[in-house]
Design goal:
heterodimer; A: Methane Monooxygenase Hydroxylase, Chain G, domain 1
Chain lengths: 123, 323
Amino acid sequence: MDGFYGGYALVGLVLLVGVAFVTVAFTANRLLRVTVPGGDKALTYECGVDPVGEGWAQSHVRYYVFTYLYVIFAVDAIYLFPWATVFAAPGFGMTTLVEMFVFIGFLAVGLLYAWRKGVLTWQ
Amino acid sequence: MSEVLEVALRIVLVLGAFLTLPLLVGQTEHKAMAHMQSRLGPMYAGGFHGWAQLVADGVKFAQKEDVVPAAADRAVFKLAPAVALIPYLVVIVAIPVAPGWVGHDLDAGLFFVLAVMGVGVLGSLMAGWASANKFSLLGGLRSAAQLMAYELPFLLAAASVAMAAGTLSLPGIVDAWQPWWLLWQLPGAAVFFLAGLAELQRPPFDMPVADSEIIFGAYTEYTGLRFALFLLAEYAGIVVLCALTTVLFLGGWKGPFDEALWGAPGVVWTLAKTMLLAFVVIWLRVSYPRLREDQLQRLAWQGLVPVALGQLALTGVVAVMVG
């Protein structure tokens, strides 16, 4: 279980154990439960009153702009991690620090732009 | 042979932690919340202060009928609880509790943990979509919006610790940790913990399951064992978040006293810190009203993200000055 892939083999095993746990739970459930189909049981509960219309309703998604922002920022943030492990290593010091401020500057200006444009305000 | 045994032991310990700690947090929540509200909470199950309440709940859930609404998207509906639950089990592999006591010391442990934790929210989204219920759909979308808003400060705060420690391995981060980091990384710690709470949809960030507006959000149509798995996922999530905050920001297995004098084993420290944080999670639930959706988004983008960026700058400057 050594080496890069060895570690992820253990992760894979635990994933299998998780699947097995869910399977065992539902097998036990199948053996123990009562099954009395019929009645209004299979009707959508919704809010306790008989549901009106389709289940999948249209709604105004107000936060899709946040989603765009997130995608942009998260892709940026991913690059922080490999850089974070080497940035204070000997010989990097000031260079990486300046780089970091450029990077944070870009993020901050982007956020400030979105803020000024009123994207972060609920409309 | 011994290697196989060791791997088996590790898996059993990971599974054991996954099955007991969330119940412990759940029972603590029952009792602590009750006492904060001048109630007694469960008192009968098991005899002593209702200690077996959640075991009894589990037995009950296992015997309940399996109802899938006729209008639901059956396959997705049935799969959703497993998708919500299993990531938290997998994450526990990477969390160290004492020197050498870790499922596996993954090279990119921090990155792995953050990536896998994000998958759990997919379960809520699947449940919300597959339920064929307007309120569930709204709840699922709110879950997604919350993940979008809080994942970024969560990542940035975690990146700050990786910069300070110079490694992505979780045991490596605890090894590098010094007590003065408590002050240095304090804004990052607060951002990480709050953003984590929001990702778990715990009060005061429980807009996706707001009962007064959308019944129980994405979980409205669920009953029996599937509902129980969603509940277990929530409490497993609390354990994972608190353990991660402990490992990243509170020094993990390191205690405040000289080890020769107060030689408490590292496991005790890790568990004590984790449980203390879990208590804070419960305390927040009792103390704060729910944030509105726009307040949630404003807190994330105009509060936590700038603070997290500031923390990155602070970490960078101090790390270069010290090094």
